[in-house]
Amino acid sequence: MSTTNKPIKTxxxxxxTLAILGLxxxxxxxxxxxxxxxxxxxxxxxxxxxxxxxxxxxxxxDEGKITSDxxxxxxxxxxxxxxxxxxxxxxxxxxxxxxxxQIIISVPGDTGRRVVELVGQTAELRFRQVLASxxxxxxxxxxxxxxxxxxxxxxxxxxxxxxxxKAENLQGTGADAPTxxxxxxxxxxxxxxxxxxxxxxxxxxxxxxxxxxxxxxSAWFVSLTFNNEGTSAFGALTSRVTSLPExxxxxxxxxxxxxxxxxxxxxxxxxxxxQITGSFTQLEAQxxxxxxxxxxxxxxxxxGEVQQVSPTLGAxxxxxxxxxxxxxxxLVVIFTLLYYRALGFxxxxxxxxxxxxxxxxxxxxxxxxxxTLTLAGIAGAIVAIGVTADSFIVYFERVRDEMREGRTLRTxxxxxxxxxxxxxxxxxxxxxxxxVLLYVFSVGGVRGxxxxxxxxxIIDLIIIFWFTKPALVLVSRSKFFxxxxxxxGFSPKSLGxxxxxxx
Length: 503
Hints:
The chain has about 500 residues and is of the alpha+beta class. The chain has helices spanning about 15-35, 45, 70-85, 110-120, 140-145, 155-160, 230-240, 280-295, 310-340, 345-370, 375-405, 410-440, 445-475, 480, 490-495, and strands spanning about 50-55, 90-95, 100-110, 125-135, 180-185, 190-195, 200, 205-215, 220-225, 250-255, 260, 275-280, 300-310. It has 15 helices and 13 strands. It has 3 domains: about 15-40 and about 310-495, Multidrug efflux transporter AcrB transmembrane domain (Multidrug efflux transporter AcrB transmembrane fold, Up-down Bundle), CATH 1.20.1640; about 50-120, Alpha-Beta Plaits; about 125-290, Gyrase A, domain 2. The protein is elongated.
């Protein structure tokens, strides 16, 4: 049944709306150039790099130490270590909850593995008096050796049995208590020690830096400066051991349960400074200084999953993702042009503006929040092409339905929008809820997918309100579309009508 063709008065001003959208895009482009963010930051899976998961080590009775505050403190320290090494665009973040909370370290480039291994160190530095020392390779005479004075039989037995040639004894854990007598190997595995309880701790260091001793054959060392508490403790320790016989006149510098060096103390050192030597390379000295500078991690960690992606593989995955997106976009464009004819160009324009806005947001968010585009993120953007196209189809079909009921195109563009708007909002709201839930309850790459899906859904709403609808209102005023031209998408044949409505 035909309805009375009553024009609807509307305050719609499509030209002004499109102008506002244009100004927003120009402002975004301006921000991009002002910030110098002209390249989208890529995730490790697209540009190559290393990602390592650190799991807190839970010793019996220490379950209560794995707290959110301890994990957050560890994240802060690790992030400082990474930044001090000058590694750009690295990421350090905590995921999970409770005792299952993990720290994810992602470092781009070929040097990522070295950096990740470094920042995961507990870096618990302690100064201990040497009570006894022997070759790191156990011999038959070790069991018959005279026990070290003032040391329990259990410690002496452990010292005699310690084999520093075994890899597990050279790992270093950092789990030793400073008040315990310690049995440990040196880093090279050549010597083993019985060490007294720690008298100076790493937290008492205020400054650490790497230096080169040219007088000693270009040997690298780490220079330490203690705070007031450390200066007093180190002065007392060195003063006490100077007159003792070997090896008790040595002070072992212990890092994460391994002896870095054990210098002989010839005189008291009240100045509050010390040097760590130990045949360091330049990188080793600089790395050690960096980890000591920011303090020890509050927890010991086990290295979990390690993922390495070569730059070549990352480039291949990026190209594959972009190709998939381009093919999906091309299919949508072909479909809309074949089905909607000239009206399809409104869809093409909408997709182009949406793509431009998404690209600009990727650039800006890379500077603002450190956003990186991953392969999962590209997948989210590809899915969003369908979500965006669906909004256009809902609106266009509603307009065509209005015209079938006897309204002109100009009127149908307004009445169809009123009726299609609710459907579009509900559909996008459902997509947005799904994206938020995925982001909140997932980890890893799924979060990248969810974030991009949510972002593109919001962009879809902006485009449909600020571009697609105003653009259709404008074209509805043109003679070409109002006349029901065969290529307009509103011809009687396209609408399934036998008589075309006049404008």
